[in-house]
Amino acid sequence: MPIDKKRMRFKVNARITSKVREKDLLTKAEVLKENFELILPKCSESCRACPFVRTRLQLERIARFKDSPDKLAKFARKGDKIARAYAATIGLAHDKKAPYLASAKYPKGTVMFALRGKTPREKLIGVQNYDSPQWRVLSVMDLVKRGKLHIYSFGDDFICTGRQPKPPAEYMQFAARAVGAQEKADGVFECPHNPDSTDHVRYDWIGSEAAVLLCDQCAIKARNVLGKLADGIAVPNVLDSIDVSIVRPLHPVSSDDSCGDLLDRPLEQDLLDEYSSGRIGDKELIEKHMDEVHEALKTMSEKVLVIGSKCFGSDVEAFVKAMTSDPIEAKALKGLLSNIGHPIVVASGDTVNKLLSTFWVDHGKASLRGVVSEELADKYFDDSDEAIRSPLKVIRRAAKRAERDAVSSQIPRYDGLSTYGKFVDGVARAFKTGGAPSASTAMDVDSSADHRTRSIAYAFDLSLGVTAREWKFTKEEKEFGKHLKKYASRLLNSTDPDAHHEAFVAFLREAGVTEEVTRI
């Protein structure tokens, strides 16, 4: 894979060579002394002008003087760079020692090598590590860029296909296994999770019919699949050898045929460049690409609804039913969808709250209007950070207010009530709009010393099953409250305006309140 020199650091004479490492290097020098072919890629194509012809001629000349340390020292100072690195390396076999090594740190790891002669470091690294598929390609990187060559390094094989990307089948198998893929069909390698039927990343070898398919999770786990697939290749631009695409297959739920390849869009070049350079991995690649896809969908004028891999077309009812069984959430969703004309895509497992949050600033009022009146929607809409994070809280508060208003509208209103009438009306209204807790709160018996009011309050307590403050009432107040209990219960349980009014008047009369009750 092409090396970014800006991201590479060198540490020269960083450490004393271990005996094991020194012995390994000297052994390699002896092997190369007898066979320089090990450092040259084998040609699999017939090129009109092979860039390695001149190098081979110089290597042959050096090989004739392999037993002359002085000649090797001269060869290491001038001429072809690979040949210079070769001369410097086999010179170690005469020195019989390599006490110090330099180190070079690359994104894919750190490599040790012996500095010798006037030779670029990459040449020395490649030659001295001729048995390493990932490091030997460094010796030919300048030729790859200058001559637009394609070289593949794997196992014991080092192959050049000239100016055309023609990856050997063996290399593609080797690379696919490195990312956990096995061959399922001719040239198609897949992870074990049947990626073709789910969200996946596809890597197509240009110049071949072969491809690697990994589900999102396997691709993310591998961190940067492209880097691993290209770990043993030297090419001008890895993106000209491997085509990367993110695939989102959609399965229609309804008869609507608008789904198609809605989510299958080409990756942006800037994003691919980040990925191929190793600055981001598959996780970031997928996330950034899907963000771009979602933004692009907003420019479309066709409503298409998608949950995970299920496409509902424009079927709002089916989409909402699949998202939630909660009545308020369903109404809010329908309100939102009525105001959006472009495709909406949510991930499997996403909540209604998350979907509403995404569109809250621009379409929050529409969501509210799906649940409450336009007046309440305008009153409760809020685009604060808290509201954007939890739009359903806002919607449920508005729905509760609408429910209270609906109940309150069915409760008769009165004019000119006495203190007793206002007390009874307040408790009954609180109960019907807010339940027993609201009614209990409305009866603040500690603030009243009036025995009639306290007896009325005790009657309500008995109707509501409240016993916690029974000790606060006198014996007389309790006796009168027990008498009024059935009237309090009748009022609280009345279901229509007329029944409420009759129960209200009867309660006041039985409590000894003789005022005229005027219904508005």
Q: How would you describe this structure to a colleague?
A:
The chain is an alpha+beta fold. 48% of the residues lie in helices and 14% in strands. The chain has helices spanning 19-34, 53-64, 69-75, 81-95, 121-128, 141-147, 169-178, 216-221, 225-229, 269-276, 282-297, 316-323, 327-337, 352-369, 374-380, 385-389, 391-408, 419-442, 451-464, 475-492, 497-510, and strands at residues 9-16, 42-43, 100-106, 109-113, 151-154, 157-160, 182-185, 188-190, 200-205, 211-215, 233-234, 242-247, 251-252, 305-307, 310-313, 344-346, 414-415, 518-519. Strand 5 (151-154) and strand 6 (157-160) form a beta hairpin. It is elongated and about 130 Å long.
- Strand content range: 5-15%
Q: Can you count the helices? A: 21
* SS elements, strand count: 18
- Largest beta sheet: strand ordering: 7-8-10-9-12
Percent of residues in helices: 40-55%
Tell me the Rg in angstroms: 41 Å
Global outline: elongated
**Which structural class do the helices and strands define?**
alpha+beta
Gap between N and C termini: 86 Å
Instruction: List the uncertain runs.
Output: 1-13
Task: Write the SSE topology.
Layout: E1 9-16, H1 19-34, E2 42-43, H2 53-64, H3 69-75, H4 81-95, E3 100-106, E4 109-113, H5 121-128, H6 141-147, E5 151-154, E6 157-160, H7 169-178, E7 182-185, E8 188-190, E9 200-205, E10 211-215, H8 216-221, H9 225-229, E11 233-234, E12 242-247, E13 251-252, H10 269-276, H11 282-297, E14 305-307, E15 310-313, H12 316-323, H13 327-337, E16 344-346, H14 352-369, H15 374-380, H16 385-389, H17 391-408, E17 414-415, H18 419-442, H19 451-464, H20 475-492, H21 497-510, E18 518-519
